[in-house]
Write a structure and sequence with these properties.
single chain, seven-stranded antiparallel sheet, about 40% strand
């Protein structure tokens, strides 16, 4: 199974695992610019779950549990790219000093290349 198919399958099955709350919002991905672990390239937040994408694995975290899928033979230098950019950007204040992280790209899909 290719990386792209695996990630797409995970996104399709996520509503089954996370329950009906996840299905109320469209799935979208944000580029990680310091909002989470530096290993994460893109992530998607839902009302009760978060999907993290790295070069080697996908982690679905929801309701106090997580499902980690390591991609056997994955290229650790793989680039994850955004597809179908959404209009506008995402902005955050991060940390105790409220450092601003601004103009973060967001997209409807992401894939490893």
């Amino acid at each position: 199974m290719t990386t792209t198919r695996l990630i797409a399958s995970l996104c399709v099955l996520a509503p089954v695992w996370a329950g009906p709350k996840l299905m109320t919002q469209p799935l979208g991905f944000e580029r990680n610019d310091g909002q989470t672990s530096s290993e994460v390239r893109y992530f998607s937040r839902g009302p009760s779950s978060t999907l993290f994408l790295t070069a080697r694995k996908a982690v679905l975290s929801f309701q106090g549990a997580s499902l980690e899928m390591t991609l056997a033979g994955a290229n650790p230098a793989a680039r994850i790219e955004a597809l179908d950019r959404t209009p506008g950007d995402v902005n955050y204040f991060v940390g105790q000093d409220s450092r601003q992280v601004a103009e973060i790209d967001s997209a409807l899909r992401a894939r490893a290349v």
